[in-house]
Amino acid sequence: MLPFCNTETMALHLTEISLMVAPGAHAAVLMDQAGWHTTGKLFVPDNISIIALPAKCPELNPVENIWQFMRDNWLSNRVFTSHDNIVDHCCEAWNKLVDQPWRIMTIGRRKWARGS
Fold first, then answer.
1. H-helix or E-strand containing 49?
2. Residue 99: what pLDDT?
3. Do 12 and 38 have their domain in common?
4. Residue 14: CB partners within 8 Å, gap ≥ 6?
5. From CA 46, how far away is CA 44, in angstroms rounded?
6. Average of per-residue pLDDT across 44-48
7. What's the gap between Cα 115 and its chain centre?
8. What is the pLDDT of residues 49-98, one digit of tens each?
């Protein structure tokens, strides 16, 4: 869990993704138009290509379904007692999701985007 969404933390995130890419392989990462995603100052590892989604089109970004699932199932309808409590709950929710890769695959799908 990082305290900010900015160019520096995005670079750290891309570095972590890069470490998971198999040797000789190349990853494509979808990104929306957040400023820290589109700045020329962002370091992008050589084994990653960024695919920029059009601005203001959350329906094209499958991760939006992931965030909604986490809110609906683990993060909504509760009173947080402190900043640390929010961070703890978010980390717990994320770890629950990571332990369910099949759920991530199904949540991220869009019925209208499937081929025949």
1. strand 48-52
2. 95
3. yes
4. 29, 42, 43, 44, 45, 48
5. 6
6. 97
7. 24
8. 999 999 888 778 888 888 899 999 999 998 999 999 999 999 999 999 99
Residue pair 17/48 in contact by the 8 Å Cβ criterion: yes
The 10 Å Cβ neighbour count of residue 85 is: 12
How many whole angstroms separate alpha carbon 40 and alpha carbon 60? 23
* 72 and 95 fall within a common domain: yes
> For residue 31, is it left (φ>0), alpha (ψ between -120 and 50) or beta?
beta
pTM of the model as a whole? 0.71
Total number of domains in the chain:
2
The full length of the chain comes to: 116
Bridge-partner residues for 30, per DSSP?
Answer: 51
Instruction: Provide the domain limits for residue 39.
Output: 1-55
